[in-house]
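User: quick one, sequence for these tokens?
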């Protein structure tokens, strides 16, 4: 098996030279190990933070070590109780085409009931996994969004954002989504968003104000932040009293680390804005059953759908990852091994 290794720490936007594809050592399995063949790899913006040598909520990638991340694989050999050859598993041994997986890679057998409905296995890397779970927890638990709320979500054509749009519509909220470019905005609209803002065509605040006016809404009750920067500032500018901001991500600053000036931050006081950053794993396990039941139902009814942008072959993994920062994905960015 082969795996992508981090060979140097990126300064700013990573380049292909930060990564190298190398062989993994092979060995007979020990107790509590699986041998897997990976089918799908996830690339996610949070992995950029793991490339820095800085303390965060996930451990840094080590230089000259294989990188990790979400993956769907098929078990080919098992010395772990509860796993048999042929099982499809979700695990953290991504950025590789397969190899040995131990308990440290959190293997999880995909539920037979879900697969029996015809659900594609890679759904557990998006709507039934990290990105869908993040959308669901952030919108419903962190922002406590309710029917009738006006919700603004940035990166709305991405994996998390597109799930937020659809969950909010299924809960009878008004939704404004922002995305870069006409094609993405049209897709966000087709998911049910009441209005869209093309942030590449005009300033976010101008687009958001116009969208609110067209919907006859005085301001936003909820902001689901995936981007930070100008988007977050526009949310401060347009927030209704007691608005809730779920701070999920700030991809606009992942590569330079310096948020831009917030001209409207002071509105947090008169509008009594509650702002909460969150990490999906903090809450996922305690609400997993409720999430699977609710999201599974929304997917089965067609209320929540997913578009995938797929790169083929392990070799393409760094390109897929880098594409997240230039918006090359619509829906979830994936690698098919
Ligand atoms: P996406 O599928 O949304 O992909 C990233 C998208 O971000 C791109 O397609 C691009 O869309 C947009 N983007 C990139 N750079 C910029 C920029 N400078 N300004 C505005 N938009 C930009 O990724 P995910 O759905 O996986 O993640 C979305 C966010 O959620 C990220 O910030 C991520 O870190 C965060 N996250 C947080 C988690 C948590 O537990 N807190 C868990 C999972 C994700 P466009 O073409 O529209 O610009």
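Assistant:
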């Amino acid at each position: 098996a082969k795996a992508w290794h981090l060979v140097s720490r990126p300064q700013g936007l990573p380049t292909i030279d930060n990564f190298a594809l190398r062989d993994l050592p092979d060995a007979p399995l020990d107790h509590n190990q699986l041998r897997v063949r990976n089918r799908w790899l996830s690339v996610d913006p949070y992995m950029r933070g793991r490339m820095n040598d800085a303390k965060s909520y996930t451990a840094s990638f080590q230089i000259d070590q294989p990188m990790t991340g979400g993956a769907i694989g098929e078990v080919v050999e098992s010395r772990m109780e509860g796993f048999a050859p042929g099982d499809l598993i979700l695990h953290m041994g991504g950025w590789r085409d397969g190899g040995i997986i131990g308990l440290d890679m959190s293997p999880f057998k995909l539920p037979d009931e879900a697969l029996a409905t015809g659900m594609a296995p890679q759904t557990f890397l998006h709507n039934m996994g990290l990105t869908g779970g993040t959308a669901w927890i952030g919108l419903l638990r962190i922002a406590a969004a309710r029917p009738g709320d006006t919700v603004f979500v940035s990166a709305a054509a991405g994996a998390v954002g597109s799930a937020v749009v659809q969950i909010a519509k299924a809960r009878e909220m008004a939704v404004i989504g922002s995305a870069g470019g006409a094609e993405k905005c049209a897709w966000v609209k087709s998911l049910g968003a009441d209005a869209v803002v093309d942030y590449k065509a005009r300033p976010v605040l101008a687009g958001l104000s116009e969208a609110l006016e067209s919907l006859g809404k005085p301001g936003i009750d909820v902001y689901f932040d995936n981007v930070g920067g100008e988007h977050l500032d526009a949310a401060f500018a347009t927030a209704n009293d007691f608005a809730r901001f779920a701070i999920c991500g700030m991809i606009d600053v992942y590569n330079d680390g310096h948020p831009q000036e917030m001209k409207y931050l002071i509105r947090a006081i008169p509008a009594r804005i509650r702002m909460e950053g969150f990490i999906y794993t903090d809450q996922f396990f305690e609400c997993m059953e409720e999430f699977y039941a609710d999201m599974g139902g929304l997917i089965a009814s067609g209320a929540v759908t997913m578009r995938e942008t797929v790169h083929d072959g392990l070799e393409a993994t760094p390109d897929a990852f880098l594409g997240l920062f230039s918006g090359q994905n619509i829906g979830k960015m994936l690698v098919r091994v």
